Amino acid sequence: MRSKAWKVAWSSFDAVTALNTLQSNFAVIDAIKKTRGSLNTQAIPEMIEWCRRVGYEVCEHRHEEESAFVSSILGNYLPSPSQPNPLFQKIGLYTSPHLRFVRERIQINNEPLSEELFAKYFFETWDRLEESARQRGEPTDTTAKPSYFRFLTLMAFHTYVREEVDTAIIECGIGGEFDSTNIIIHPSVTGISSLGIDHVQILGSTIEEIAWHKAGIMKEGTLTFAVPQPATAQHVLEKRAKEKNVDLAVAAEHPLLSDIKLGLEALFQRSNASLAIALASAHLHALPNAPQISPSTLPQEFIRGLEQVRWPGRCETRRENGLAWYIDSAHTLESIQLAASWFATCISATLSQALPDGGDRSIRVLLFNQQTRDAPALARALHSTLVAALEKGQQPFTHVVFCTNRTFQEDGYRPDLVSLKTDTQEVDALAVQKGLRDAWSRLDGGASDVVVKSSIQEAVEWVRDVARNERAPKKDVSVLVTGSVHLVGGFLEVLESGKEIS
């Protein structure tokens, strides 16, 4: 047994280090590629077996799908000065991926697990799996544990049982049909957000194939909400709902959202907020003695939740001397286009401030990386969306920096940000970044100053140098940070840590 006298920081570090020894998500995906999806079909029975090995039988749990908005809304039914009659004492939220800390994935009452609780429940799960292996006469090495994402899912369920949460919001990892979170038999409600083309090796390369997988979370007798989808995707959802004997409803934009300032900026967040309203309303309807929500009104708890919701790295703005950082972890074609539109809206006030000769006085910088997907395609989508949004003749950016996802120049990655998805040699050679530099130069005809850096820390310092040396008086440099969750997580770590290059 592990000593409770371990220092909290050492225990948390040890937990993350141990977690990183497990098969990575990329290794699982790569295995599925090679078997053309046959491994994927075993995900649910394997996850059920892992549950049994830590002492749980899969049974009825009342959870719901979706994330930040729902959790923020339901969080307003927790005990507080403004809520004298709380419906819940504890609300769980399981989501992925994380930005800076792995423990962000497992939250209670909209706060990540503390380092102490993360280490506690991590090693409880870890030790139960090893004890199960010993009883079976099997090795207790990494083969006795599931892969990275499955382990965290297992740990999340264990945490919520041990912490006796009243309700939980469980977000799928990839797809739905074969996702390891999809072992919940009777959720109170399920939700499907806007569909995009991603994880094509697993889910397929068409929106119809992806819709089929997403519909896998539908459960007989449970209401499912979906935001408006392309017609062909909607047809697939309706067909699967009929096969599963599920009522499928479209969560159209709620009419009262135009009067609410959402905590997450960008127009497209209204779709997510509308889905969250539908899901939270249905979940409350399923509870005894809970208030019933009228479709035509929104309780103050809902309004506060929508206004107070925060999700770092998503439509987030931070400011420092001479700089405005616009941060969005978009990493698919669809989300990159939305991020570009959001950025264009944010900087629209600066676009009219022209020099006497009609030129643009604004300095706009792009800090970008995408290490595993089609990076040039994402860069092209970003460029074309911004060109369309800007006045004729304006280039989207005056300066561009492409960097790897390595956090710090000397210290490399912090343990929570270690990723085994990439080719180390390719990262060291800056192959992707140099390819992006060449592609961008072709896009804008060499109009912007484009550089390549080997770490996020170096990229941030370069941007700060641009702001110090080139910005106009009393005018901030606008910087869009996007392209990858890993990039944004490392970027926030650089900002928060305050480490400078020696």
What's the arrangement of strands in the largest beta sheet?
Answer: 9-10-14-11-12-13
Proportion of residues in helical segments = 40-55%
Work out the strand percent: 5-15%
Low-confidence region ranges: 3-9, 60-66, 354-358
Largest sheet, in brief, is: 6 strands, mixed
The number of distinct β-strands equals 14
Summed over residues and divided by their number, the pLDDT gives a mean of 87
Q: Could you say which structural class the secondary elements and strand pairing correspond to?
A: alpha/beta
Q: State the separation between the terminal residues, measured CA to CA.
A: 42 Å
- Rg is 23 Å
Number of helical regions: 18
Shape: globular
Provide the descriptors you would attach to this structure in a database record.
single chain; 502 residues; alpha/beta; six-stranded mixed beta sheet; five-stranded mixed beta sheet; 14 strands; 42% helix; disordered N terminus
